[in-house]
Amino acid sequence: MSNSCKMVDKADKKYHEMAFAKAIPIYRKALAKDSTNTEAWARYGDCYRQNNQIAEAEECYAHVVGDSNSKNIYKLTYAQMLMGTGKYTEAQKWMSNYAKAEPTDARGKELESGLNHVDDFFEYKDDYKVQKLSINTSEAEYGPAFYKDGIIFTSSRETSDRPAGNHSWTGRRYYSLFYAQRNGADFKDPVIFLKGVQTKYNNSSLCFNSSGTEMILTRNNIENKETDDEGNGVLKLKLYIATLKNGQWSTVIPFQYNSDDYSCAHPALTPDGTKLYFSSDMPGSIGGMDLWVCTRTNDGWSSPKNLGPEINTKGNELFPTVAKDGTIYFSSNGHEGIGGLDLYSTTETAGVFSAPKNLGAPYNSSDDDFSLIFDSTNTGYFSSNRNQQGYNDDIFSIKKIAVKLNGLVVDRRTNDLLDSANVKIVEEAMAPDYKLTGKDGFFTTALHPSKNYWITVERTNYKTDSIRVTSEAIRAAGDSISVVIPLENGIALDGRITNETTGDPIGGAHVTLINTTHHDTLKTLADANGHYSFSKLEFKSEYKITAESEYCISKSVDTSTFEIKGSTTMHIDIALFCLLGNITLKNIYYDLDKSNIRLDAAKELDKLVELLKKYPSMKIELGSHTDCRASYAYNMALSQRRAQSAVHYLEKSGINRRRLVAKGYGESKPVNKCECEGKRFVPCTEDEHQLNRRTEIKIIALN
After folding, report:
1. For residues 660 and 116, what is the distance between their CA atoms, to the nearest angstrom?
2. Are 27 and 8 in contact (CB under 8 A)?
């Protein structure tokens, strides 16, 4: 056996023992002697990947995917490493290759989809301020959880309070829990948390109930006790529960669903304490680690329920947390994202979870991002190994930047502050945000640095004005930005359009305002109550206001603003003479098969003569109708003769023939369901037939 083969065997032994940190230098030496061993390159890459050394892992997997005989899974792994180093174009190529090679693995299509619009995840990156907390060290810190007036977190830092011992997986110290008391926007120096509760090995990822009297934490007690089917050493994580009684934490008891065959980790209680979310690879998992939930019972916890394929993937879903509003945050490397573990949110309604939403940058980076929590000030804390080349996790704070906009609205001529101005702030692709200035003319809101805004101000008797605030100006402003919006005052006009005869409002009336001095024209429609208004009248101008509506005589009113010195509102009501669109003349009867006007009908037509003489510009149509009895053609001819007879009567009474139109409609427009043509026969009384024997007057012109 060659020397390089012996070294590979030695490295493989450490690899299967999960002593990845010790295996790395042995693989390095072996592959320096023989670089053709694809399987050794794959395990070498795994060692780096398991320790979050993404750049080194990427170089190793590049050797693996170059071998056409390598397993397809390495196309996915290589693409994920490329994402982790921000090489999204190259990652897209290999993710597409994997999606085609393994069409049943939804991760390929999901991650490829995310890479197709990866720029979208960076849209709001400038809207947030992210800071590394001072409690971080050169070792790993992660998994913050609120406790009392500070946070508890996990760290591999050295301390005299913890027994010595290094983890063969990472080559670093075991993880311990530390408490840091809040100190303004940051935290005081951390101290070991409940030394007596923590074990020799890893203690991490804990949560508390809302009252701080119940604690659930993650830990493992024995290293490399179990092995998988290939003889690889496996560390199983377990959950443990403690209760605070009389100021003392009770003995830590194991979670009832722990097992030596799978892991349970990363607990998260809902605010009411009734549900427990956690990560596990127990039987029934869809991928590696899935999210599960239990409901509290009198005996402990109900059987775990998998959150299902909407949330869980063939990848890993880890580190769930639950905010006060019930939003569930978690991390995954199986949903579309930026790279590594990304943070997502979902909500649960009646047992159904919404589609996970990637929180985007800067919550997420090309590295691992996880364990997100929020305090009462909406400041978030999360864990990430960004800017660490994957070596160590740190804890960061994140808060949405709200550059305060301070605005004043003033009179352009006098500089007086204007109260009760309506301020409309429009962000791109968002609904307007409305503000109202107070007596001091002041308004305020929050702007975000990635957006441009239009600020529009409206006020009665003033001309509307707008200004644009750019994202560049917002970012340059620091904590606040101030604007002054001067409005030019003017004269408003309002009024009401009504029916001269009845006093009823004329909704929809057309109102035209003509500035006869400057020849400007404005138009509007009266509302359902007849009200109209204009807000941009000029000083020292003559105006003509004209109101028009169907079946009404238009009317114009002249007015002037020459005598007006300051802003005001002019009130001008206009009453129009109107007629209904159709007028039915009752009791106009004709003898059978006759068209001459009888005496009783003549009385009704005489009333129409008086109306036509009063309004000489009025033109009308006289439309005659019949009932359905007799044939359709007969009734059409009969109605036309009767209409012409009525027109002839009006003409003899002195009405110009050109103002009159005779129109026969026969039985074509019944006012009820009385039909008797062909098969469409509806039995009707004589009174019902009489309703259809009518003559209607339609006004076709009235100036």
Report:
1. 72
2. yes
Residues 221 and 314 in one domain: yes
**Quick one: residue 530, left, alpha or beta (phi over 0 = left, psi -120 to 50 = alpha)?**
left
The average pLDDT across 537-550 equals: 88
Residue 158's nearest CA partner among 117, 120, 190 is: 190
Q: Is the pTM of this model over 0.70?
A: no
DSSP letters, 173-205, are: BPPEEEEEEEETTEEPPPEES-TTT--SS-EEE
User: Is the CB of residue 219 less than 8 Å from the CB of residue 199?
Assistant: yes
671 and 562 within one domain? no
Fill in the amino acid letter for 685: T
565-576 pLDDT, tens digit per residue, is: 766 789 999 998
- Give the number of domains in the chain: 5
The crossing angle, in degrees rounded to 10, of helices 3-16 and 38-50 is 40
Percent of the chain scored above 70 by pLDDT?
A: 91
Angstrom distance (rounded) from CA 674 to CA 691: 10
Q: What SS3 state is found at 536? A: strand
- Which residue matches tokens 């990427």? 58
User: Which structure tokens are listed for 593?
Assistant: 């098969």
User: What does the H/E/C string look like for 558-616?
Assistant: EEECCCCCCCEEEECCEEECECCCEEEECCCCCCCCCCCCCHHHHHHHHHHHHHHHHCC
Helix (H), strand (E), coil (C) string for 14-45: HHHCCCHHHHHHHHHHHHHHCCCCHHHHHHHH
Residue 462 or 371, more confident: 371
Specify the residue for token string 């690889």. 232
Last residue of a domain, one of 576, 610, 643: 576
In a domain, 181, yes or no: no
Q: Which of 466, 487, 508 is at the close of a domain?
A: 487
> What is the distance in angstroms between the CA of the first residue and the CA of the last residue of the chain?
113
| DSSP symbol at 679 | T
604 domain residue, yes or no = yes
Residue 31 domain-assigned? yes
Chain position carrying tokens 């921000």 = 86
Q: What are phi and psi of 666, to 5 degrees?
A: 55, -135
Specify if 179 maps to a domain: no
HSE of 277, CA atoms in CB hemisphere, 13 A: 26
Of 332, 319, 384, 385, the C-alpha closest to 358 is 332
Whether residues 114 and 79 share a domain: the answer is yes
* Residue 586 binned pLDDT confidence (cut-offs 50, 70, 90): low
CA-wise closest residue to 509 among 575, 584, 457:
575
* Cα 460 from chain centre: 33
Which range of residues forms the domain containing residue 121? 3-125
How many helices and strands (H and E) does the chain possess? Answer: 11, 48
| φ, ψ dihedrals at 688, nearest 5° | -70, -40
Beta bridge partners of 570: 493
